[in-house]
Amino acid sequence: MFGEMLPFRDPEPMRQRIAAQWGGQEDLWVFGYASLIWRPEFEAAERRQALVGGWHRALRMRSRINRGTPEVPGLVFALLPGGSCRGVAYRVPRQRVEEELERLWAREMPTGVYDPRLVPTRTPEGPVRALTFTLSRRSPACLPPLDDATLLDILRKARGRFGTTLEYLSETACALQACGIHDREITRLMNVARRAGLA
Q: pLDDT tens, 19-42?
């Protein structure tokens, strides 16, 4: 059910695990595929176009804090298994990683829903290993593909601490376009919203 309560997962052990896997010997790369492109909120020394294989961007994750509420859940993008995803990789200087990870966790992991992981990432300047936020298809937060009527209902109603689901979708579409990244599903979703007079 769309509005059911989600189990809380303690995000701190996951942060510690990522920090241990990173190891502290080099700068940390972070792969952004949605709001991290247009509102990163952390200091990066470098930004590159990037491609991650084995994962794709999908507007399938329930949002009960950032873009919705427990009563009226919204949607946010997550990386789901399969396909590939173009986005942006950010390099965080080694000496700033601990501080920036705390900020990133406060934003992305308030209820521990994502599965953070370090993934092989291709950039024009060479391969890197980047932190990104993925979602298991088995997660209670992962929704099946929604029909357009259900999606439009969410786009009309859902609002959380960072704004509406509609704003989130629109900002992501604009940011990808500015980066020269074409995402067919996002283009389709924006067309659905426009036809309904929402965008």
A: 999 999 999 999 999 999 999 988
pLDDT, tens digit, 9 for 90 and up, residues 107-134: 899 888 999 999 999 999 999 999 999 9
Contact criterion met (CB below 8 Å) for 117 and 17: no
Interatomic CA distance for residues 110 and 156, integer angstroms: 25
pLDDT number for residue 41: 86
Which of the four pLDDT bands, split at 50, 70 and 90, describes residue 2? low
Q: Round to whole Å and give the CA distance between 148 and 30.
A: 32
Cα(165)–Cα(157) distance, integer angstroms: 8
The whole-model pTM stands at: 0.93
Q: Tokens 């890197």 sit at which residue?
A: 128
Q: Cα separation of 75 and 73, whole Å?
A: 7
Point out the residues that are catalytic.
108
Q: How far apart are CA 46 and CA 16, in angstroms?
A: 24
Helices (H), 23-144: 35-38, 97-108
CATH code, 11-195: 3.10.490.10
- What residue segments make up the domains of the chain, in order of their start? 11-195
**Rounded to an integer, what distance in angstroms lies between the CA atom of residue 81 and that of residue 58?**
10
